[in-house]
Design brief:
The complex is a heterotrimer of chains A (388), B (343) and C (309). Chain A has 12 helices and 14 strands. Chain A is of the alpha/beta class. Chain A has 2 domains: 11-152 and 287-368, Response regulator (Rossmann fold, 3-Layer(aba) Sandwich), CATH 3.40.50.2300; 154-280, Response regulator (Rossmann fold, 3-Layer(aba) Sandwich), CATH 3.40.50. In chain A, helix 2 crosses helix 11 (311-330) and helix 11 packs across helix 12 (336-343). Chain A is globular and about 65 Å long. Chain B has a single domain (12-263), classed as Orthogonal Bundle (ABC transporter involved in vitamin B12 uptake, BtuC). Chain B has helices at residues 12-30, 34-60, 68-86, 90-112, 117-137, 139-142, 163-186, 188-198, 200-205, 210-236, 246-259, 264-293, 300-315, 319-333, and strands spanning 148-149, 154-155, 158-159, 238-239. At the B-C interface, helix 5, helix 9, helix 11 and helix 13 of B face helix 4, helix 9 and helix 12 of C.
Chain lengths: 388, 343, 309
């Protein structure tokens, strides 16, 4: 036994001795390794397939054109099945075992929040977390200096929606259906601010993640005489809510936060989804924004099936653009600190899809504005300029 | 078919303890990513403390709990609030919080006096949902669904702030928990609990006070889960209701059953088996398979996990501990082995 | 006052529709429990497989683009049922027979791992993207005196009623049904009486798979988008099966409907008038369940099994 242990220790020491002497983990002569943690097997596994595919589309394009300062970008995707504990384990694996340079586009609010202690401990930056929770850019939190948010927060989105509704109809009675978790919490934060500002009261209706029936909530909104309903759901909920409303003969104006931007909502809801307005933190994937044009061109070249194309796939694509721009600015000899510093030089940077992004030491929110997108005849149309 | 076997000889225990304490050094010597392995082991250690308690409840007494992640949650949130908001030292919280969880155990033990079997399983599952909702409702202390940041454990001025430090803290507690669980299982209490499992009427007839023992085992199980919860909160530094999912409760019961119900070592083995399978073995296997077949699906990891579990149950329905006993008997009887399965 | 009453009536109707969904899933649980005492944790996944298989058949028969006709729906439905029979039979061979003499726990664990496998396998075969399910009923609604109900919900209610009547008749009037009852009471004695217990078990799994497939087909359009997380609905139907009493067919449907009505009313009228219920609306179901079990530990319609020493 002693011998075996001894051999193990010797082997261990040898392995240790041969450790890499390079400057920063995840950087070699010709590659940059980045880590991505997605939900591949949980409730949001659809996004787990779409987002990395969109990101890889852009990374492949960059790699074909010589990479970033001669280095190819390689992304490792891990699974957290929407469980924060698993997200932490995956992050530890990426940082300690795979030695990634930075984390990128981790999905979900609570998984991202759970990563804060690890980020702080290891100094690994997290670029473009795939959640629109405003808490991500709250600079008073732990590891906030390492997290760079790209999207406008849910709280701001809700505020903008309420403002927009009131500007169209000053007497509107507003109701909100929210998911009773951290997502909803952030939405309610925005609602409370908007209520105070406009001096109105918004009718709140909660549902639980994974709910499939909204009869009670819709009936309540009807009873409350609500004329404008904000649905803070993901993809399925707005469809069911709007269908239920039609079934009950109730026809308010429906609005949605950014996770409801998917074009399949109009597809699945059919006639019930007409007029649905959602906020969007970036230009549409089929618009003529520069990124969208490049995106469609690359999709065609790579043979991406039509059913994958859409806002979520595009979201993976445009955040990859932000990351690559950050890496470009980091220079020829990247370290994690240099990456953070480079990102903080972003000043009204226009990537072609996001509104101009600005980062500095006291602000990692990136953007503050959104556009409104409305469904008419089953097609999404942009109906506003960038609203702040 | 529930037979009792002799204990593994006690001389092994000190050797095992020394091995456990040397393991981090070996890992550090062997691989530069030892921190990740330590993290996985830490998780296993915390779960071991919980599953030992769960084994006493579900394995020994046969009272199914599908709500043990709720006990873990109560322990975690109680300690986080006590230490960070009330200002109690961590070491005190390590004793107080489990007691509070134990009281919650009594609360759920009360319906268990009448409800049995899968009905009890569902009752505890409901308890899990209720606790989750209550945690969100008390947002003054828990910060609602947004989650709560928790401080590092500090004992006598020493701050445990790395996986390395946490390992020693967690495994000290785990060793104590396993020994304690073992003692309880071997004591009069343990025998009474097993009597209740095998037949409530018979147990009552021989003088086992049903209500007393059922409440007691819920309290004890709560204590173990409470300790696990305290360690969970302070070593992961961030807790939210998403951490304590219903699926986690189901995983806990799987850990106990894979190990082989009503044996503390079985619970330990089962927990190690499931955690290592989930976090180390299956990801490795996935990489090998993806290298061979070029499959891109994200589902392959859970498919492998499910398949391995499934095959294991089909071929070893008595669990790991049963396997171990079978092996032991095989060697004892060697070379005169009967062809028939003994266990 | 009348407003309150119509509101309550509407919510009751919607609740019954939701409850029938739970009842259909609970029926699947009940059948297996009735004969084998195994709680099938993969029931929701069986349903999900049924929904996917039906979707697959509809798209296959619908080789040209266009709206599917009634004929195609019926053809797909029939094919899915045939698939369900085969699937149930396979499950019996894979899970039930190898573990026949093992503790019930092992079988339950096997069903848990089966649920993991099915979710992953369907996800791998069908791809990660959710599908837009077909529905023969579209968004059509019926309105009677201000109370509205969608045709889809109506079809769910009808199928639940028909299935319950069929199974009730089967268990009480047919030879095989009585054989199943006998097996559930004492499988050893049943075997001694000449009942082919293994075949009875196989039949139960097949029935359960058929019920799951039917409910999957009906439910898919109601879920708006079809993905593998549909299987988790099985967990939501648990309290319904328990409330009625495990192993009772009347219990399954009664428990389902009670749960559905309570859920809808507590999310509707109750939380409209009492703000604090909004925070609690999903656990009211569980509180009711625990309260009922405290009074009747074997559910509303379950029979208390006396264990002999």
């Amino acid at each position: 036994m002693k011998k075996i242990i001894g051999i193990f220790i010797v082997i261990g020491l040898l392995v240790n001795g041969c450790g890499k002497g390079t400057s920063s983990p995840g950087i070699t002569e010709d590659t940059i390794l980045i880590g991505n943690i997605q939900d591949l097997s949980g409730p949001m596994k659809e996004l787990g397939a779409l987002l990395p595919s969109g990101s890889n589309l852009y990374f492949d394009y960059v790699n074909e054109n010589g990479g970033v300062h001669g280095r190819q970008i390689k992304m490792i995707v891990e699974d957290h099945s929407y469980n924060p504990q698993k997200a932490v384990a995956a992050a530890k694996k990426l940082i300690e075992k795979d030695q990634v340079f930075c984390l990128y586009h981790v999905i979900g609010t609570s998984p991202c929040e759970a990563l804060r202690p690890i980020l702080a401990e290891s100094g690994v930056p997290l670029i473009a977390p795939a959640t629109q929770s405003g808490s991500m850019s709250d600079m008073s939190r732990q590891a906030a200096d390492l997290i760079f948010h790209t999207d406008t927060g849910y709280d701001k989105q809700t505020r903008i929606l309420v403002d927009n509704i009131l500007s169209k109809n000053a007497n509107a009675k507003i109701g909100i259906i929210y998911q009773d978790d951290d997502y909803g919490e952030n939405v309610l934060k925005g609602t409370a601010i908007a209520e105070e500002k406009a001096g109105i009261s918004v009718q709140r209706e909660a549902y639980q993640r994974g709910a499939t029936d909204f009869a009670g909530q819709v009936a309540n909104l009807m009873k409350g005489g609500v004329t404008d309903v904000i649905i803070a759901g993901i993809v399925k909920e707005p469809i069911i809510v709007m269908k239920t409303a039609v079934a009950m003969g109730y026809a308010p104006n429906f609005y949605g936060t950014s996770p409801t931007m998917d074009h399949r909502i109009s597809l699945a809801a059919g006639s019930a989804g007409e007029g649905f307005t959602s906020v969007n933190f970036a230009s549409l994937w089929n618009s003529d924004a520069p990124s969208a044009l490049l995106y469609n061109e690359l999709c065609e070249k790579a043979g991406i099936p039509a059913k994958m194309k859409g806002m979520y796939h595009f979201y993976g694509f445009i955040t990859a653009q932000v990351l690559v721009e950050g890496l470009e600015r980091t220079g020829k000899f990247p370290t994690r600190t240099r990456l953070v510093n480079a990102l903080e030089t972003f000043k009204n940077w226009d990537g072609g899809a996001f509104p101009p992004i600005t980062y500095n030491q006291n602000d990692h929110a990136g953007t503050e504005s959104v556009i409104l997108v409305q469904v008419t005849d089953g097609v999404q149309n942009v109906i506003s300029d960038w609203i702040e | 078919m529930k037979r009792r076997y002799e204990d593994v000889s006690l001389t092994w225990i000190p050797v095992l303890i020394v091995a456990i304490f040397l393991l981090p050094f070996m890992l550090k010597g062997m691989t530069f990513s030892y921190k990740y392995y330590l993290f996985v082991l830490n998780m296993a250690g915390i779960y071991i403390i919980l599953t030992v308690g769960l084994d006493l409840l579900s394995g020994y007494t046969g009272l199914i709990s599908l709500g043990h992640s709720a006990f873990l949650a109560i322990g975690a949130y109680t300690s986080a609030i006590l230490v960070d908001q009330v200002g109690i030292p961590f070491i005190l919280s390590l004793f107080i919080s489990p007691l509070i969880v134990g009281l919650f155990g009594l609360l759920i033990g009360f319906p268990a006096l009448r409800i049995t079997g899968m009905y009890l399983g569902l009752t505890t599952m409901g308890f899990g949902f209720i606790v989750k909702r209550l945690i969100i409702a008390f947002r003054v202390w828990t910060q609602g669904a947004g989650g709560l940041e928790v401080s590092h454990p500090v004992i006598l001025g020493f701050s445990f702030n790395s996986d390395w430090d946490n390992y020693y803290l967690i495994f000290t507690c785990a060793i104590i928990a396993v020994i304690a669980g073992r003692r309880i299982g071997k004591s009069k209490i343990g025998r009474a609990l097993m009597a209740i499992r095998d037949s409530e009427q018979a147990a009552e007839a021989t003088g086992v006070h049903l209500a007393k023992y059922k409440m007691l085992v819920f309290f004890i199980s709560g204590l173990f889960a409470g300790v696990a919860g305290v360690l969970f909160a302070h070593t992961s530094h961030f807790i939210s209701t998403d951490h304590f999912d219903i699926l986690l409760s189901i995983y806990f019961i799987i850990m106990v059953l894979v190990g082989g119900a009503s044996s503390i070592y079985g619970a330990v083995l089962g927990t190690l088996f499931i955690v290592l399978l989930d976090f180390l073995f299956v990801p490795q296997l996935k990489e090998v398979i993806q290298g061979m077949f070029n499959i891109e699906s994200g589902d392959i990891q859970s498919l492998l996990f499910g398949l391995i579990m499934f095959l294991f149950i089909i071929f070893h329905p008595t669990g790991l501990y049963g396997m171990w006993l079978k092996m032991k008997i095989y060697w004892k009887l060697f070379p005169f082995n009967p062809k028939k399965r003994l266990i | 006052m009348t407003e309150l009453l119509t509101g309550l009536l509407q919510e009751t109707v919607s609740g019954i529709a939701l409850g029938c969904i739970y009842a259909l899933i609970a029926l699947g649980f009940t059948l297996i429990i009735k004969a084998t005492e195994v709680v099938n944790f993969a029931q929701g996944e069986l349903m999900m497989v049924g929904a996917y298989v039906n979707f697959f058949f509809v798209t296959t028969f619908l080789s040209n683009q266009g709206e599917p006709t009634i004929g195609i729906y019926l053809l797909a439905f029939g094919s899915s049922i045939i698939f369900a029979v085969a699937f149930g039979w396979i499950l019996d061979w894979v899970i039930n027979r190898p573990l026949k003499d093992e503790p019930i726990f092992s079988v339950i664990m096997a069903t848990i791992s089966l649920s993991i496998i099915l979710r992953a396998l369907v996800g791998m075969i069908a791809g990660p993207l959710s599908l837009v399910p077909y529905s023969p009923f579209g968004n059509k609604i019926l309105s009677v005196g201000g109370i509205v109900i969608s045709v889809l919900d109506l079809s769910i209610i009808f199928s639940a009623i028909i299935l319950v009547i069929l199974f009730y008749y089967f268990f009480n009037q047919t030879k095989w049904g009585v054989a199943m009852q006998a097996t559930s009471e004492d499988s050893v004695a049943a075997q001694l009486m000449g009942i082919p217990v293994k075949r009875v078990y196989g039949l139960v799994w097949i029935f359960s798979a058929i019920v799951a497939t039917i409910s999957g087909i009906l439910l898919a359009p109601r879920m708006s988008l079809l993905d593998t997380s549909m299987g988790f609905l099985g967990l939501k139907a648990f309290p319904a099966a328990v409330l009625g009493g495990f192993g009772s067919i009347t219990g399954a449907i009664a428990g389902g409907i009670i749960m559905g009505v309570i859920e809808t009313i507590s999310m509707g009228t109750l939380s409209f008038h009492f703000e604090w219920i909004k925070e609690m609306n999903d656990i009211i179901v569980w509180i009711v369940l625990i309260a009922v079990l405290m009074v009747k530990p074997d559910g509303l319609f379950g029979e208390a099994k006396v264990k002999k020493v």
